[in-house]
Amino acid sequence: MIKVGIVGGTGYTGVELLRLLALHPHAKVCAVTSRKEAGMRVDAMYPSLRGYTDVVFSTPEDAGLGECDVVFFATPNGIAMGEARALLDAGVRVIDLAADFRIGNVAEWEAWYGMRHASPELVAEAVYGLPEVNREAICGARLVANPGCYPTAVQLGFLPLIQSDAIALDSLIADCKSGVSGAGRKAEVSSLLAEAGDSFKAYGVAGHRHLPEIRQGLSRVAGEPVGLTFVPHLTPMIRGIHATLYARLVRDVDLQDVFESRYANERFVDVLPAGSHPETRSVRGGNLCRIAVHRPQGGDTVVVLSVIDNLVKGAAGQAVQNMNLMFGFAEDAGLGIVPLQP
């Protein structure tokens, strides 16, 4: 049984980690940090965890994180990069759910995130935690950069097309929608029910922080730069991401076979039958990416529909999946959960 610490346990990804790890057969959460809530029982803040944990929030200094086997950072951007080194030096493995180690070019990261990187030397060591691409490297990693939610849905949707050399790489389009939980648990006017309900809007059209991460991942797979237009939208739902992806075909392939073959052995990617239209509610609460591929009117445009739960496969679930790989557990340990419906 490994000892787990969670830094930043009061946010949505933190409580999702707690939910998933509560029944994990090989992991026990021993420390959850929150300066503001130190001394409060975790299940007092999140009653859904009553009977599953008796952990009390503690300050990072009092949490004994250095005695853990693995520490998850479920914190805002900029926290893990300042604290990861001490934990790594103590022999603790680190999984960062924020963006501190996702982008290999430190100068580009600093430009997009508006701060100086505190541990640039760790960026080169960090393994990008998309198991469907980097499984072998994750198994041997001590520092994993957990992918963002939009990047997970988009990369899994485009990956088979790029690897099969079926599409032009200069004009990819990712038209994506997210539920409001993607903005986190912080108090913010734009996330209020009266503001986000009964409405639908695009944002970050001029440039979103997930753009360089997606572009980097796709370019690594392609072996050359890709041209990508990424437009995120906010939808009046709590959980879920729906990515509608467009590309131009450059050779005739059996698209259904391309996707089914690529993901035939992937536990957490479900390629739906031809003609399907995946719904976000079909993955709510589960660590799944469900994908359908279309070729409208038999033309040269391919449309991929990719859906995930942004808090699970897009965050905490994928982080647990990475932990399982790092410690040699079954990849689906603690993740055999059926999505919720309705």
Gross morphology:
globular
Spatially, the strands of the biggest sheet line up as 3-2-1-4-5-7-6
Tally of helical segments: 11
Second rung of CATH, namely the architecture of the largest domain: 2-Layer Sandwich
The SSE string, one letter per element, is EHEHEEHEHHEHEHEHEHEEHEEEH
Category by helix and strand content: alpha/beta
Q: How big is the Rg?
A: 20 Å
Regarding CATH, which class of the largest domain? Alpha Beta
CATH topology of the largest domain: Dihydrodipicolinate Reductase, domain 2
- Mean pLDDT, nearest integer? 95
Helical content (DSSP H or I, runs of 4+): 25-40%
Bin the strand percentage.
15-25%
Unreliable stretches covering 5 or more consecutive residues: none
Q: Would you count the extended β strands for me?
A: 14
Family: Belongs to the NAGSA dehydrogenase family. Type 1 subfamily.
Pathway: Amino-acid biosynthesis; L-arginine biosynthesis; N(2)-acetyl-L-ornithine from L-glutamate: step 3/4
GO molecular function: N-acetyl-gamma-glutamyl-phosphate reductase activity; NAD binding; NADP+ binding
InterPro entries: AGPR, AGPR_AS, AGPR_dimerisation_dom, AGPR_type-1, NAD(P)-bd_dom_sf, Semialdehyde_DH_NAD-bd
Describe the structure.
Helix content is 30%, strand content 20%. It is α/β, with parallel strands linked by helices. The protein has 2 domains: 2-125, Rossmann fold; 149-310, Dihydrodipicolinate Reductase, domain 2 (2-Layer Sandwich), CATH 3.30.360.10. Strands 3-2-1-4-5-7-6 form a 7-stranded parallel β-sheet, with helices on both faces. Strand 13 (289-294) and strand 14 (301-308) form a beta hairpin. Helix 1 crosses helix 11 (312-327), helix 6 runs parallel beside helix 11 and helix 7 runs parallel beside helix 9. The longest helix has 16 residues, at 312-327.
